[in-house]
């Protein structure tokens, strides 16, 4: 009789118990959503131009550790070319070809010194596409870096 009454009684609380894995998954989703929102609204975020979403980078399995390091440096915008002046404790110098500020974007997409290599390797015109997870774009970018003799200085 009590069981029948319990099924129709609206005042009885039903506890929704979750497993440990369900709780972990839910916590990860909540944290991911919070990070996604913060990433979207962050001002002056240079990295967001390269990586507009917060998903993990996935590098192809066929690239070497050295290539992974180069790719990571390109993605975060830190290289010998862009940060040498900090190590030397001097002012940054403009590009000797264009007079522009030297940045990874400038090297990969803008500097006229590398127009021929850029065309040869089909470098996309967007920094986000150039440095995304697509194996074809990664291979093109790494080949471009090698052909421009920037491989050892990135």
What would your notes on this structure say?
This protein is mainly α and 154 residues long. Helices cover 55% and strands 0% of the residues. The chain has nine helices and no strands. The termini are far apart.
Features:
mainly alpha; 154 residues
**Helix and strand composition category:** mainly alpha
Low-confidence stretches: none
The total count of helices amounts to 9
- Rounded to the nearest angstrom, the radius of gyration is 25 Å
State mean pLDDT (0 to 100 scale): 85
Strand content: under 5%
The shape is elongated
Count of distinct strands: 0
Q: Helix fraction?
A: 55-70%
Topology as H/E string?
HHHHHHHHH
| Spatial gap, N to C terminus | 77 Å
Describe the main β-sheet briefly.
none
TL;DR of this structure?
By secondary structure, the protein is mainly alpha-helical. The chain has helices spanning 2-8, 20-41, 46-50, 65-76, 80-88, 104-110, 115-120, 127-130, 135-147.
Sequence-ordered SSE layout with sheet pairings:
Layout: H1 2-8, H2 20-41, H3 46-50, H4 65-76, H5 80-88, H6 104-110, H7 115-120, H8 127-130, H9 135-147
